[in-house]
Every structure is written in C-alpha cells, then in structure tokens.
TrEMBL record:
Protein name: L-aspartate oxidase
Organism: Corynebacterium lactis RW2-5
Reactions mediated catalytically: L-aspartate + O2 = iminosuccinate + H2O2
UniProt pathway annotation: Cofactor biosynthesis; NAD(+) biosynthesis; iminoaspartate from L-aspartate (oxidase route): step 1/1
Class in the EC hierarchy, top level: oxidoreductase
Length: 529
C-alpha cells in the first residue's frame, strides 16, 4: 500500500491530522490498533483512544463568543493569561515558543472543529445585551487555571464528542482497523512508512510522511485512568527510527481517581471540574488535604495536589482520601459520566464521600517535536500525547492536551501538504515507492525486527515495577530496582518506553513538576533547570 500521509493512531491528534490532510488533498491512510465499532454510545469510535474518555474539557481562549463570556474575577481572559498559567503549571520547564504558538492557535483550531460538527455546551441563558442568538459557551475552571476558560460537551463527555465529530469528518477515509504499527521504515535518514500487523497478517505501507499519534504510556503502569490503547508503543518505534524523546520522567498523576482494591487496570477518573465546581478534598479525619500547601488549595496544579495527597496518605498510613461533593447542586446533570461510574461502585455523591487516590493519567514528555509535529527524522511526525512539543513542561495544565492534539495534529498535516507542494513545484518526486519500502522492510525483518511483544506475565512484572519504582514519589533505590526488572525483560517497544521514563528520572535527582524525588531536599522553586 502507498499513501502521502500514514497516520498511526485515531484519537484527537491523529484524526485532526487525517481530516486536515484530506482537506488539503493528501492521500491519507489511517491505521489504529483498536476497532471502529458501533457501540453502546451509538456512534462509531476507536474505543481504545484516550480521547473518548476526556471529561473536563478543552482549554481555549479567543473563540468568537468571547465578548460575551470567559471572565476571571471580572477581568477579561486572554491568550496571555492562558500562556502564563501553562508556564506556571509546567514549573518553568515549558518551551515558551511552543506554548505561545499552541495556545494562540487554539481558537482557530477549535472553530474548525466546531465547523466539523462538534457541539460544546452553552450557558443556560444569553447575557443581557448580547446580540448573538446563541448563549455563549459554558466555561468551567480546573486546577492551575486563573479563569473559567474550559469549554466542555455533554457535561463531562467532552472527549467523546470531539472523537465523534472528528470520526464523522473522516468518513470514507482509507482506514485500517485492528492495524498495529510494529516498525517504522527508514531509508537513508528518511521515514518512508511502516510495518503494520492486522488479523490478516503483516503488511507494508509506503508513505511520503508518517505521523505517530498513539497516545500515552498509562498502560505500562498498574493503576491508570488511560485506556488499553495507551501502551506507549510510539516511544519505542520512534527511538528505533532515530528520533529523540524528551521529558519522559514527567508522568502526571491525576489526584482524584476513584479508589479500588483491584490491582491492575483502568481506573475511573473524577474530573478536576468537580473540584472546580466546589467539591473539597478531605482526609479520614475530615481535615483539608491541601490547606497550607498552596494558595490555590484544592485547585492548585495536579502535581501539587497529588503530592499533598501522597504526603497525607504516608502520614496517616492510609490508601485514599475523600472528595466531598455532597453540597453540590445538580451533580448528575453536570457530571453524567462520573455519576454513572460512581453508581457502578455504589457511591451516591449527594450522600457519600468519594474515596480517591492519585493514579497515572498523562504522559507530559514524549517524542521531541516542533509545534508542527516534526521530529528530527525527515518525514516522521508525532502529535498528541505520544509527543513532546514543550507545551506541558514538567506538568501539564488541565485540559491542555485535547488542545495540543487538535492544534498540532492539524498543523502537522498543513506542514506535510506544504512540503508536498514545494517538492512538486521543484519537480521533485515526493512519493515513496512500494518496492523501496518492501526492500527496507525485508532488511529489517532479516535483522530480527519488529521487536518481540511481552507475555502477559512479563507485562505484569513491568507494570508492578513501574508502579513501585517510578510512581507518584521516587527514590534512587526504587528507580534502580525498576531498572533491574526492565533489564531482565525482552526489549519490546513498551519496555523501551519504561526504560526512557526510569533513566530520565534517574538523571533528575530532585523534584520538578510531577517528578517527585523523595531522597533530596525539594528544590522545585529554586530556579534550577
Ligand atoms: C480519563 C481521562 C480523562 C481525560 N480528560 C481530559 C480533559 O478533560 N481534557 C484534556 O485536554 N485531556 C484530557 N485527558 C487527556 C486526553 O484525553 C489525551 O491526552 C488525548 O485524548 C490523547 O489523544 P491522542 O490523539 O494523542 O491519543 P489517543 O486518543 O489515546 O489515541 C491513540 C490511538 O492510537 C492507537 N494506537 C496505540 N498504539 C498503536 C499502534 N502501535 N498502532 C496503531 N494504533 C495504535 C490507540 O488504539 C488509540 O486509538 C484525559 C485522559 C483520560 C485518560
């Protein structure tokens, strides 16, 4: 098979690139290891994409209805304020140029998404004096944001609506479901496609440009909010292709994940927006968990709140703290997805305290890319959670990841289309021949590639090692023990991702953002780095 653009992964980043590529006349092939199935939610969807699960919303400033809303403490919100909040949450480790480009690009990309049919919730009534027929978008606030700037859909089903709208927008695209990228093909320093396995066997795709958009690494840990697609495979694929990764030690632990005694598997998230609407974090004695930690209290950035919870749990020798949402009015209507998840655990937020604990939620680092998704390997792009533009720094600001996937996925397709146009105007052939890709693939197969997969038992060992050694708090001893186990396992692409996290963590023996180092004095605010 040949194409102009091979998109690997069908969440917000991959679908944005695929849709924009189609608009710009690229011949796009979309591959996803999950299934595009009609299911309980009535829409087609790649069920393994984290995008489906996003609850809180999309952080964006400057939409065309902004004159009627989006105020913080009476002052108008601004791109500059969103940039400042992002830099602050990122603990001084963000790439400022990337932050400005991506945040400033949010409104245009979101209007594009709305134009494709995404429907975001609107406020109940239009403000008096409004000339618009429609009320402004309803906006909420999450940890680290100085303004109510987060738009949402279906109450707390924002990601599902974005996924739905983007999937509908690529109807008719060349699509390979259950197709898993196993190996990237590189010829004289240029990425020229991939080896793809699907239930029918192994195939070779020759592509002028390849975009990795496979999501985060949550599933290499025992306890995560991330779905089964978040296996971290792009990290190993990209490293094998010669790309660089960065900031891998910054794994974000969401502070409020429903506690369960189950050892492994995806956990139910209780969105930060619940705290944004007034729920409080308390310990088993009823004392505030964050009092005295940060002036923003329960709505401080996630690293600070997760650390506060971890410290309180260590102090009390307990496994969970509580979220008290009993006083919130209209919880089921505002948070229908969370209400359903709590009901499954026999918890009624109007009556009961909600037991919560931190769990792996987001991969702040990843494949090093520009804000257009370009890696250092010609023809290889990455976008979304598997990539690192520098937007998140040492700790992602809530609701900035859907924004990043959308903006960078779209920008990557535009960059690829522009390169194709340039090549054609110079009379160069940009296309990659299937014969050449087959030859490169045969050579790789002779060398024993693709890498082996882990057995279920090996994956379990990896997850336990990562949870214990590279969890919410870290020590040199714990990280070295994790590394010993990593060394003992077959070097699969998932093990490569785990190694990248642990080695990066060992190279940073101090606390920064969501990398919490227990052996040393916390010098987070000392300006180091
Ligand atoms: C519970 C939860 C709530 C969240 N809430 C929010 C929120 O409110 N706001 C926000 O901004 N962010 C939120 N996030 C984060 C956000 O949802 C993700 O960061 C974002 O959706 C990732 O998009 P993506 O396109 O990079 O990857 P994904 O949406 O994860 O899609 C990746 C796709 O790649 C496929 N894939 C994986 N490996 C391969 C392979 N080797 N070959 C082919 N396909 C492969 C997977 O099956 C999957 O379909 C939340 C995350 C979770 C888990």
């Amino acid at each position: 098979m040949t194409c102009d653009l091979l998109v690997i992964g069908g969440g917000v980043a991959g679908l944005s690139a695929a849709r924009r590529g189609l608009e710009l006349g690229l011949d796009v092939l979309l591959v996803d290891s999950g299934e595009w199935r009609t299911g309980a939610r009535r829409h087609l969807r790649f069920s393994d994409a984290a995008t489906n699960l996003a609850q809180g919303g999309l952080a964006v400033v400057g939409l065309s209805d902004d004159s009627t809303g989006s105020y913080a403490n009476g002052a108008p919100d601004s791109v500059a304020a969103h940039v400042a909040d992002t830099l602050d949450a990122g603990a001084g480790h963000c790439d400022e140029v990337a932050v400005e480009r991506i945040v400033a690009g949010g409104a245009e990309a979101t209007e594009w998404l709305i134009g494709l049919g995404a429907r975001f919730d609107r406020a109940d009534t239009a403000p008096s004096g409004s000339v618009s027929e429609l009320p402004p978008y309803s906006r909420t606030k999450e940890g680290g944001h100085s303004a109510r700037r987060i738009i949402h859909a279906g109450g707390d089903a924002t990601g599902a609506e974005i996924q739905r709208a983007l999937e509908v927008s690529v109807t008719g695209i060349r699509l390979l479901q259950n197709g898993r990228a196993r190996q990237l093909l590189v010829d004289s320093g240029r990425a020229i496609g991939a080896v793809i396995d699907d239930p029918r066997g192994r195939g070779i795709v020759a592509a002028s440009a390849t975009l990795l958009a496979t999501g985060g690494v949550g599933q290499i840990y025992q306890a995560t909010t991330a779905p089964s697609g978040a296996r971290g495979e792009a990290i190993g694929l990209a490293l094998d292709a010669g790309a660089r990764v960065k900031d891998m030690e910054f794994i974000q632990f969401h502070p409020t994940v429903l506690f369960t005694r189950r050892e492994t598997g995806r956990r139910q998230l209780v969105s930060e927006a619940v705290r944004g609407e007034g729920a409080k974090l308390v310990d088993s004695r009823g004392a505030s968990v964050t009092a005295g930690m940060d002036p923003r209290g329960d709505l401080a950035p996630r690293d600070i709140v997760s650390r506060a919870i971890a410290a309180r749990l260590r102090e009390l020798g307990e496994d969970f703290v509580f979220l008290d949402a009993r006083h919130l009015q209209g919880f089921p209507a505002r948070f229908p997805t969370i209400t359903a998840g709590l009901a499954a655990a026999a918890i009624d937020p109007a009556q009961d305290l909600i037991p919560v604990t931190p769990a792996v939620h987001y991969t702040c680092g990843g494949i090093e890319v520009t804000p257009e998704g370009r890696t250092c390997v010609d023809g290889l792009y990455a976008a979304g959670e598997c990539s690192a533009t520098g937007l998140h720094g040492a700790n992602r600001l809530a609701s900035n990841s859907l924004l990043e996937g959308l903006v960078v996925g779209k920008a990557a397709a535009e960059n690829i289309a522009a390169r194709q146009r340039d090549a054609r105007s110079r009379g160069d052939s940009w296309a990659v021949s299937a014969v050449r890709a087959e030859a490169v693939a045969s050579h790789a197969l002779e060398e024993g590639l693709p890498r082996p997969d882990l057995t279920a038992e090996q994956l379990d060992r990896l997850r336990r090692a990562m949870q214990r050694g590279a969890g919410v708090t870290r020590t040199e001893k714990g990280l070295r023990e994790a590394l010993d186990i990593i060394d003992s396992l077959p070097q699969s692409v998932q093990v490569m991702a785990a190694r990248a996290i642990v080695e990066a963590a060992l190279r940073r023996p101090y606390t920064l953002g969501c990398h919490t180092w227990l052996d040393a004095v916390d010098i987070e605010s000392s300006g180091r780095d």
